[in-house]
Design brief:
The protein is α+β, with helices and mostly antiparallel strands. It contains twelve helices and 37 strands. Among the domains are: 57 residues, no CATH class; 216 residues; 167 residues, Immunoglobulin-like (Sandwich). GO terms for molecular function: hydrolase activity, hydrolyzing O-glycosyl compounds.
Length: 677
């Protein structure tokens, strides 16, 4: 401890009981000690200052820092992301399988200098970090792109993030809840990883949201696997499935983004802007995709054509589009209508387009060519198909119990060839929309573009056909995969689960909310997987589907029932009179936002809103609590803070922030509420 002025004053005092000579000598010794201690303190302060300067210098050399929000400490390989208030919202262990090798900033040969946003570990790996800030203002959130480049065959990119106390949302496996993610306990994180995806049987977009306003999403073209909620650490880990390629010297093994903002609503907007800026190879935004005032009619078999014609002629049906069933070709890959079907198809098209029907066809198209199709040999000879590891295309893919080849959508010549046939069909059948059928392609396939993977196939197929929107052609996805920056009609498959007598649509809402936050606003409730539904089941389904941005009506035998026809008529009247004006207003005002939203979109800090998985918001004013089980008589509904009023038949005002029970035994009762504050 350094001497104070008071200590020095006390050193000058004399004690009369001690001889003066002794006191003088003792005083000199005290002064020398004080001087010595002062010198030591001075050198200590100087040393401390030098250490602090060295520490800051060391930190700049051993970390990547973007302002006060992002810090990656190289020595510990620890990532910390903060919000604008300085609170830590995400922590990660990066490069978990990276060996303890020397590191430094990456050397850039062109500039003869070190890259500040890149760290290299000897001859093992590089980590690049790039910042994206919308409007150059971090107060509105920021995104950080992390890119691992392999330099050695031994390196595997693997990053783990601590979930902490926050709730997370997104798709993992078919056996886990997605809203929020619960019930996932992997005992050994180092050994158990789930392939993403093994086989895509439904919509699948690699994005996960945290309730603290964080989003993590992987670029859709990268193979990876993941682990979740291991033991008490509660970690989310991403591991690359790609490996070092000596022929290409360096290779991106994994690329993903971490975005941060104040809430899920804010981070969604930041992430979507970031994605649109990345996807510069897509055509400009086209406004063709509208909310359809009238429903889509889905045809599943040949006999449906005649039934729809009769309904049109009797003025018993109205629609905006009708979907032709998938096997309209004699063989997949003919890209020509089956001659036996063509006269009937041309007739229904001519009847449907007449006023007042004004309904037009959706043509399902695929990039699959059976080896029996008329264009198969031409595609093979011109190198237009995806190839396997033996450089063969025959019998590469088994699709719908047929063997054949798949169009290489990264080959410009192949795409031009394919589009020429599609454009001919569009003119012949007066098509107003194309439905893009999904194929599961083997992961080891090779493409014209060596950077292409099977996970990105749907997105690139959509990009190629998006050029047709200039011809007023809308696009419908059978299954969404990855990120698509343009509007597209996207079905969400709805099916009942459970035992007979208690079947429920209990998976529909979580997947719907997840798809909305994945950047797909124009959702359709798809009834393809409903096999022989009862009248009660289908009524409950209609009460849900009517609130979706686009309504599709399947052609089912039970629709011939007079009771069901009356019920459908009432549903369509509700949609046209009360819902469509509001839906169109949302789409016009907020086209960049999801139309169907979770409750925590508006009430981020409400604990109940964070876990409700069977209700949703339409825009910011309409709350819907659909009856999801066929035998339900009482529906419990949570109304968040504010004041709410029932629909047109119930004008009771309800105070928010509490649960209410409603009798829904009468099928004419649909629990939905308007926010009036």
């Amino acid at each position: 401890m350094c001497p104070t002025p008071r200590d020095m004053d006390e050193a000058k005092a004399y004690d009369d009981s001690v001889p003066i000579a002794v006191q003088a000598q003792e005083s000199k010794r005290r002064k020398r000690r004080i001087l010595k201690v002062s010198v030591y303190c001075m050198f200590g302060i100087i040393a401390m200052g030098v250490f602090v300067i060295w520490l800051f210098h060391k930190d700049s050399k051993e970390s990547l820092r973007f302002g006060s929000l992002f810090l990656f400490t190289v020595k510990l390989r620890r990532l910390e992301v903060k919000n604008y208030d300085g609170d830590g919202v995400l922590y990660g262990d990066m490069g978990r399988r990276l060996l303890a090798t020397p590191y430094d900033h990456c050397w850039h040969d062109d500039y003869k200098d070190y890259e500040e946003n890149c760290i290299q570990w000897l001859d093992t790996a590089k980590l690049y970090v790039e910042q994206y800030v919308p409007g150059n203002d971090t107060r509105h959130g920021a995104c950080y792109v992390l890119r691992w480049v392999g330099l050695s065959e031994k390196f595997v990119a693997e990053d783990c993030f601590y979930l902490q106390r926050f709730r997370w949302y997104g798709i993992l496996t078919n056996n886990t809840r997605v809203w929020p993610i619960e019930g996932v306990e992997l005992n050994d994180l180092t050994e158990y990883y789930d392939e993403y995806p093994g086989v895509q049987n439904d919509n699948l977009v690699p994005i996960w949201y945290g309730s603290q306003g964080v989003a993590i999403f992987v670029d859709s073209g990268f193979h990876f696997s993941m682990g979740w909620n291991s033991t008490k650490k509660r970690q989310f880990c991403i591991r690359s499935k790609l490996s070092y390629d000596p022929k290409r010297r360096t290779r991106d093994l994994l690329r993903y983004s971490v975005c941060q903002a104040d809430s899920i609503r804010d981070v969604y907007q930041v992430a979507q802007k970031h994605r649109r800026d990345l996807d510069t190879d897509f055509p400009p935004h086209n406004e063709k995709h509208e909310l359809l005032r009238l429903p889509i009619r889905a045809l599943t078999r040949y006999s449906d054509l005649q039934e729809l014609v009769e309904q049109f002629e009797k003025n018993e049906s109205s629609c905006s589009l009708f979907e032709i069933y998938d096997n309209w070709e004699e063989s997949y890959g003919d890209l020509t209508v089956n001659p036996k079907l063509l006269p009937k198809l041309e007739h229904i098209i001519s009847v449907a387009e007449r006023k007042p029907n004004d309904c037009h066809p959706i043509l399902p198209v695929s990039t699959f060519f059976t080896y029996r199709s008329r264009l198969f040999e031409e595609g093979v000879s011109r190198g237009f198909f995806v190839r396997d590891q033996q450089n063969l295309v025959t019998r590469l893919v088994l699709w719908r119990n047929q063997e054949g080849a798949v169009l290489d959508v990264t080959n410009p010549n192949a795409v031009e060839w394919f589009l020429s046939h599609v454009i001919r069909l569009v003119g012949q059948l007066k098509v107003h929309a194309l439905k893009l059928l999904h194929l599961n392609i083997p992961p080891d396939s090779s493409y014209h573009d060596s950077n292409m993977t099977h996970l990105d196939y749907t997105r690139i197929f959509h990009r190629d056909l998006a050029s047709l929107t200039s011809m007023n052609i809308s696009l419908v996805l059978e299954r969404a995969s990855g990120f698509i920056p343009l509007p597209v009609y996207t079905p969400v498959r709805t099916m009942f689960h459970g035992k007979v007598g208690s079947r429920c649509l209990n998976t529909t809402m979580p997947y719907t909310l997840t798809m909305g936050l994945s950047g797909y606003p124009l959702l359709i409730a798809d009834a393809d997987l409903m096999i022989d539904p009862t009248t009660a089941m289908f009524m409950r389904w209609l009460q849900l589907a009517v609130f979706f941005p686009v309504l599709e009506i399947p052609n089912l035998p039970l629709l011939k029932n007079r009771t069901m026809q009356n019920f459908l008529r009432e549903i369509l009247e509700l949609r046209m009179s009360e819902l469509m004006p509001y839906l169109e207003k949302i789409w016009k005002k907020e086209p960049a936002l999801p139309i169907l939203r979770p409750l925590l979109w508006e009430w981020a800090d409400d604990i109940h809103a964070q876990v409700v998985s069977d209700q949703f918001m339409v825009g910011d004013r309409l709350l819907v609590a659909p009856v999801l089980c066929e035998d339900t008589t009482v529906r419990s509904v949570y109304l968040p803070g504010g004041k709410w009023v029932g629909h047109r038949n119930n004008q009771t005002v309800y105070e928010g922030g509490q649960f209410y029970n409603f009798n829904v035994e009468d099928f004419t009762v649909i629990p939905f509420f308007w926010r009036i504050d």
